[in-house]
Amino acid sequence: MNNQINLLFGGLSLFAMQGCKAPQAEQIEHPNIIYVFPDQYRNQAMEFWGQEGFRKKVNFKADPVHTPNLNAFARESVVLTSTQSNCPLSSPHRGSLLTGMYPNKSGIPLNCNSNRPISSLREDAECIGDVFQSAGYDCAYFGKLHADFPTPNDPENPGQYVEEKRPVWDAYTPKERRHGFNYWYSYGTFDEHKNPHYWDTDGKRHDPKEWSPLHEAGMVVSYLKNEGNVRDMKKPFFIMVGMNPPHSPYRSLDDCMEEDFNLYKDRPLDSLLIRPNADAKMEKAESARYYFASVTGVDRAFGQILATLKEMGLDKNTIVVFSSDHGETMCSQRTDDPKNSPYSESMNVPFIVRYPDKIRPRVDNLMLSSPDIMPTLLGLCGLGDSIPAEVQGRNFAPLFFDEKADIVRPTGALYIQNLDGEKDENGLVTSYFPSSRGIKTHRYTMAFYIDRNTKQLKKSLLFDDEKDPYQMNNLSLEENKEVVKQLCSEMGGMLKEIDDPWYRERILSNMISYVLIGVLVHIGKEKMPDRLVLIRHFIVIDRVSSLFV
To answer: Can you give the residue ranges of every domain in the chain?
Structure first.
């Protein structure tokens, strides 16, 4: 019975207040906001995690990286330990970031390229830039987008793609698909870090021959200083900066700055790959020096933006967020795949928020999911009432202003992996295959993988992240039936809540309960005999009798 009661309230914590307007902090004026999210930046790759005040807040060893600007920034910020990229892949995450929806609703279930017309940011979605623009913000986007299906729309070569290789990955985003961003300096995806290119607001291409994070930081500085009269100084600004490094490649000085590489070049690999689950003998291990060099370079670029805010007196009224789209396994689990997995080094991403004098610096274990970011950013700016109705994520802004705010914290986050499904006669993907679903809680990570033909279980992962933080011991489902049962119940409810394909097709229904029943809870029988509270949200149960407490 105790386990059933725990499941009841665990489930309520997952779903309570979903879709509700969270209370807003009183604000006289809307602040500026800058959201910086380098690609493939693992949460472990921040130096401060090994420092006093942070070391005991996480159960992993900090990577031996040099990040002085992030170190100082973290001590002025709310730092989350448990932010999860639910579908840890560039395009699906960006779809969730921009729309506040999971991949099955955002329009982006797969990484975007010209072979996947089914994966592209929905034109009809009300995205974060749309909301900020409607609220009177000047909106600017810099760097990598990777949220559009590439089409032959090169502004300088009409009727042609922006690159010759096939499938096409890079893309130009025309004005009608920029979703509220009036200033544009962006591209789809392109991995020559010292040879980047961008299309500006008017569709003109720029090839600066400069390491991309430093170039993008310089362009942000120029925008902040309003060089060229590019922004409305009477409006607050909303800036997104999608840096590409430390995304691969990480194999030569073409990928990072030499001065940063020099910090790591002479260090033995086993002094860099210090985690017990990392294999320094893997061929990929040499990449660690270049990856860490890119991390340090991103830190420097981020520092330039922070310095400019302070120099201009904008730092006090500007919310600055540092995050990423997904992590990087970097030789853990003996996999070369840096992402798209339920391993903590793939799913766990940075999320650091600074708002001077408005939020108190601290470390918090709030389990933020990708779709939560959009409504939370809006909430931080006092725009909680403007969150679009379609948004599936929750606004956790009140918890940043007050860690004891009356908001139910989530106890779990979904893991989602999709692969190409059916293809037409031209090789174009016409559907996606929902290959894996899982759940991450503060203690456990569980994921199920299904066979493409039978849709039956072919592989499972189950880790006790408390006892096994590096996920080196895959636990037996059979020997952990009670844990699996509770995790399956929570996961089933969440999949139903977002109308996931696994719920619609009742995949693994012999293991996952997708039955949702409304809950009537009697509160305080002795002290409040007449008070009955109807909870309008839902949880998964095994027996109706377990509903009544």
So the answer is: 2-9+412-547, 37-401
